[in-house]
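Researcher: Go.
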Amino acid sequence: MNEEKILCSELIGKQVITESGIIVGNIVDIDFETSSGRILLLVVKPRKGEISTYFKSDESGNLLIPFSYVRNIMDYVVLYEK
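Model: Structure:
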């Protein structure tokens, strides 16, 4: 299987939305495992009034979204609605 590779630097700033089109916010940072390079969490600056209560947040109010919630990465990042 030939998977397209995406650089972490290309993810910073991307908009994050749910499958139904609700805008969650924009990626401001990425937490990854240094030994494997596997992405663990997306750190997302939330859009006010949206689904911010569904995810844990850091001390700055950014959402910590497990990468397992990512359904697809295109011009934006689409999350599964689990």
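Model: DSSP finds one helix and seven strands in the chain.
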